[in-house]
User: Fold this.
Amino acid sequence: MAAREGNLEAPTRHPLDWNNPDFYNEGSLFNELERVFDLCHGCRRCVSLCQSFPTLFDLVDESETFEVDGVAKKDYWKVVDHCYLCDLCYMTKCPYTPPHEWNIDFPHLMLRAKAVKFKQGEVKTRDKILTSTDTVGKLAGIPVIAGLVNAANRAKPTRKLLQSVLEVHEEARLPEYHSKPLRKRLSHLIDKQAAGTPAGNTTGKVALFATCYGNRNEPKIGEDLLAVFEHNGIPVTLAKKEQCCGMPKLELGDLEAVQAAKEANIPQLAKLVDEGWDIIAPVPSCALMFKQELPLMFPDDAEVQKVGRAIYDPFEYLMHRSKAGLLNTDFKTPLGKVAYHAACHQRVQNVGAKTQQVLALIPDTTITTIARCSGHDGTYAVKKEFYDSAMKIVKPVVNQVKRAEADHYGSDCPMAGHHIEHALNDGSVTEHPMSLLRKAYDI
Assistant:
C-alpha cells in the first residue's frame, strides 16, 4: 500500500534517544541519512530555507546517477555542516514529519550526525571556543579587557589575524562585551519576594533567565524587559546562579556539555517554579532549549519537564496579560512603521505571532512582519567558510526591510537583528522589540 501524501495532523516530536549506543553508530547514521536524503530529494520543498538543502540537491544533481545513491557518503557531511538547527523545515515545510509513516525529523537527524562527528573528534578548536560562551564571556568581560576585545574586534588588522588563525571571517560582525553584566546590574532582584496577579496559565510574577548573550553582550535588553514588566505590575526576580542554556553546545553536537548545563540550571529554575515564579528568557533560542530540546533529551526528568512547562517567551507572556485585560496600554509614543523580523527559534515555539500582536496595540504603529530566516545562528554567520552563505540567506530579509521603509527594525533574536543591520550597512541600527515597547511606553 502506498504511503499517504503528507500529514493531516500537527507534527509531533519523538524523544532524542541520545544515550542509545546505536545513536553514535556511523553505519546506522549513514543508512538513515541516505533514507531521509532520498525522500528530501524527491520533495525539495525546503530548498529556500537554508544552505543544507541546496547543498544536498546540488550533490544529487551533479552525481552520475542523479539520485542520492550517486552521492559519496563523505559528502553527506557537507549537508550536515550547513544545518544550524533552526527547525523551520520541521515546523513549517516538511509534510512527512511524524506521525507520518516516513517519520522525518531532519533537524534531529542533523543533530545526531553532529553528535557522531563530535564523538569522533572531528570538530575544530574554533567551534569549541565559539560555543564556550560562558568562558569567553567571563574573560572578555573583565574590566579593561572588554574595551580591548571590542576595539580589536573592530580593527581590520586584528580581524585579518583572527581569520587566519581562528577562521572567523574578517568581515563578520562580532558581539560587543560589557564589563558590567546584566546579572550584576540586576543583582538586587535575587531572592526577591513578591505576589503576582495570575493571567491565563501564568502566575503573574517572573524569574528572568538572563542568558549568556543577554548577560554579557547585550544587557540593555534585560534592562528594558525589567522596565516593561514592572510597568505592567509584573514582579521580576533572578535565579541565584545560571550558565549558558546549552544551545550552542547542542548545535555543536556536544550532548554531554548540554547535560552539564542542564544539571547546573534546572535545579535553580525548578526551585523558582516551586516558589510560584514563571520563567522568562529574552533570547528565543534559550527559551526553545528549555521548552523543547531539554524535555526531548531528558523525557523522564520531572524537573526538566516542570521547567519546560513554566518558561515563556516575553511577548507570549505579555499577550497572556492582554487577554486577561491586565496589559498596560497607556502608550505615549507611536512607533510609525516597524519592520519586525520573526526569529526562527521563536516561530518554532508554536506560540503564535505574539510580538507582532503586542506591538500592533501601539497607536499609529504599523507592523511589517518578516517570517524568513536571517541565517545567523549565533556562530554560523561568523565562520570563514559559511559567512558568504549567511549573507546570501539574509539578503531577502534585508530586501523586505528596505521595501518597508520602516522607522524601526529589529528581531526577537538580537543576533539576527545585528546580522540584518550588518547586511544593510546603511548606518541604521537594529532595535529589539522589547526596547521598542519601552520606547512606546516612554519609560
About this structure: Residues 182-319 form one domain. The longest strand covers residues 336-341.
